[in-house]
Amino acid sequence: MNKSYLKVCGNHNVFFETYGNPKGIPVVFLHGGPGSGFSDSSKVFFDKNRCFVTFIDQRGCGNSTPNGSVFNNTTQNLTEDIELIRKHLKIESWVLFGGSWGSTLALYYASKYPEQVKSLILRGIFLGTKHEINWFVNDMGKKFFPKVYYDFVKIVPSGKNILSHYHEAVFNFEEKKTYDAIRRWQNLEEAAIKMSEEGFSSVDFKMQKISPDAKRKELNRMRVHLHYLINDCFLYQNEILESCSTLINKSVRIIQGDLDPICPKENAFKLHNSLKNSKIKIIQNAGHNAFCPKIKSALIKTIEEELEKIS
């Protein structure tokens, strides 16, 4: 296991960690969010004897510095960072593994650098469109979690765009109002993530109960997150689907929770229908959480199958 930083353009230092067998099949893990960073818990998906996995904290995320910075922080920047790290590690080509926003980034990278991609393993498909962003911010909570959604929107002045208000809250509001907004956004996220075979249980993310350092990290995460959403993830409309022609000869495996409210299964089928060589597995009674036992098991099995094909 090796941990390191790579200095990239725009005064960013991108943190990455390698895990597993240096002689194994190279895999790059692309975390979600945008803004979340990776965690050690994600190593559970990989056989360390057969894989050589690179985990990357995207610009402004996790251990990358400056943490929370949105300057020179776009999808295009992240894609170039992935490619720089590949070259730095002297990896010829690798398997892309990404869920939610990580699936978006994997597809975008693959469209720009198809020769460097062995295959893609994707979960909870997010295509980075205005429609999907609008669904999450304006419609999802209203449909599935009306009580949580009411708490989410009641701080937004009448007639004001919800996303714009929250974006302003994490950059320009005084501290108490900023963290109150973060709590409300987190509650909506958590309600959606916990929607699974166990059903929905009410949540209340208490900012005041976490350490000052954890609060600052959460603020930084939200700044990156909202920076991407308000800028339509720096993608033109339907860019991901329109770029699928570059992946015509690639193995693409899609794992999708049937009940995922954040990244609805319609997205996964749109991608699947655009990639005739792709295989899709719908996990019944499962949501967005990658660590849900059914999804976790499907991901591990899919990785094993892809490794067998590549070996």
Structural description of this entry:
- This protein has 311 residues and is α/β, with parallel strands linked by helices.
- The protein is 42% helix and 18% strand.
- The chain contains 10 helices and 8 strands.
- The chain has helices spanning 75-88, 101-112, 130-144, 146-153, 162-172, 175-193, 212-230, 239-242, 265-274, 293-310, and strands at 2-8, 12-20, 25-30, 51-56, 94-100, 117-125, 251-257, 278-283.
- The protein has an 8-stranded mixed β-sheet with strand order 1-2-4-3-5-6-7-8, with helices on both faces.
- Strand 5, helix 2 (101-112) and strand 6 form a beta-alpha-beta unit.
- Helix 3 crosses helix 4 (146-153) and helix 5 packs across helix 7 (212-230).
- The two termini are 22 Å apart.
Which CATH architecture of the largest domain is right? 3-Layer(aba) Sandwich
Strand neighbour order, sheet with most strands? 1-2-4-3-5-6-7-8
Helix content: 40-55%
SS summary, helix count: 10
Mean pLDDT: 94
Taken in chain order, the helices and strands follow as EEEEHEHEHHHHHHEHEH
**What is the CATH homologous superfamily assignment of the largest domain?**
Alpha/Beta hydrolase fold, catalytic domain
Number of strands: 8
> What class would the helix/strand composition place it in?
alpha/beta
What's the Cα radius of gyration? 19 Å
Largest beta-sheet details: 8 strands, mixed
Instruction: Give the CATH class of the largest domain.
Output: Alpha Beta
N-C termini distance: 22 Å
- Which fold name is given in CATH as the topology of the largest domain? Rossmann fold
**What is the global morphology?**
globular
Number of domains: 2
Oligomer: single chain
Which residue ranges are poorly predicted, with pLDDT under 50 across at least 5 consecutive positions? none
